[in-house]
Design a protein that fits this description.
single chain, about 325 residues, 14 helices
Length: about 325
């Protein structure tokens, strides 16, 4: 019995033989050809308002430029130029303002502000950390809300009202001073130590507000893993928690340092010139209480304050990236 050969389409036979003119493409071949040569999809277009999203931050940028940029430029220019009260009319380049701001009573005031800020910021950080830890780990919502609300109020309570409150309670004729006889034990509110106590009143709450979010970022798994491996509470804080919190602690310290370094009204109302501080020297130079025509010297003192603040910030910024990956 003989079987008839199966007919082969012309284009298939041409493909098998490797030559000849190809025949008309079949529907399946055309479909495959279309699929192979389809163009790559174009990238999706950006949203219409995507390129203009930065406009939402424009008010903040303008506020920063007007409130910080222009004064900073004016301070930098005035610190290196003569005052308008000078015989030549002022406006000429000079280094006398800058050199004068680092000599004599001005240097004493600058160093006094740095010492006061370092001391109060350090004490506030040490006292505020355990208090913030108690808030972050508390199971009582009412306690947490009460402490955070009180910290928010006290951190912004300063100036003349704060000075009056301490004078009425811990001054030489204050109620607490008379009741406990603090004067006999050497207590004096109108000194460097007394001013430090006053500054702690608003610096400790500020530290609580600053460090509490970082403490909440510590994962409970880290503590459990440390305890499971035989670590004690002290070892956990020494080898795990504090290294992670170190940049945040430094950031809080920088914030406390800046708040203490720039404080003016509280010290002016309470101690006056008995405690030399750079902020009060600037106020005296601008108002002409001591010498007339010292406005540009006051600008040089302000430039010194900016330099000190930048040096402190330079310690904090490199470490901020290190903690971001752990507390994110």
């Amino acid at each position: 019995m003989t079987t008839a050969p199966t007919p082969v389409p012309p284009n298939a036979s041409a493909a098998q033989s490797g030559g000849g003119a190809p025949g008309p493409a079949s529907p399946s071949t055309a479909a495959r050809t279309t699929t192979v040569h389809t163009a790559a999809p174009r990238p999706a277009k950006r949203r219409a308002g995507g390129s203009r999203a930065w406009l939402a931050a424009l008010p903040l940028i303008l506020f920063f430029a007007i409130g910080f940029g222009l004064p900073a430029v004016a301070i930098a220019i005035g610190a290196f130029t003569t005052s308008t009260d000078a015989p030549d009319g002022g406006g000429t380049f000079t280094l006398d303002n800058l050199t004068g701001s680092l000599q004599g009573a001005y240097w004493t005031a600058l160093w006094g502000s740095v010492k006061l800020s370092l001391l109060t910021a350090l004490i506030a950080a040490v006292v505020g950390l355990p208090l913030a830890q108690a808030v972050a780990t508390s199971r009582f919502r009412a306690f947490r809300e009460a402490v955070m609300s009180a910290s928010g109020v006290l951190a912004n309570f300063g100036g003349v009202p704060l000075a009056f409150m301490f004078v009425a309670t811990l001054g030489n004729a204050g109620e607490v001073t008379k009741k406990f006889g603090l004067t006999k034990h050497g207590w004096n509110l109108y000194t460097f130590s007394g001013l430090s106590v006053v500054y702690l009143y608003f610096l400790v709450p500020l530290m609580v507000i600053t460090i509490t979010p970082a403490l909440e970022g510590l994962k409970t798994q880290w503590r459990e893993a440390a305890y499971n491996n035989g670590a004690t509470g002290v070892q956990y804080w020494r080898h795990v928690a504090l290294p992670v919190l170190l940049p945040s602690l430094l950031g809080g310290f920088v914030l406390l340092f800046g708040a203490s370094f720039a404080a003016y009204a509280t010290a002016e109302a309470m101690v006056g010139s008995s405690v030399p501080l750079i902020s009060m020297q600037i106020g005296d130079a601008l108002s002409g209480n001591v010498l007339v025509g010292q406005g540009n010297l006051a600008l040089a003192l302000g430039l010194d304050m900016i330099v000190v603040a930048c040096l402190v910030m330079a310690v904090y910024l490199p470490l901020q990236r290190r903690s971001a990956k752990w507390l994110a």
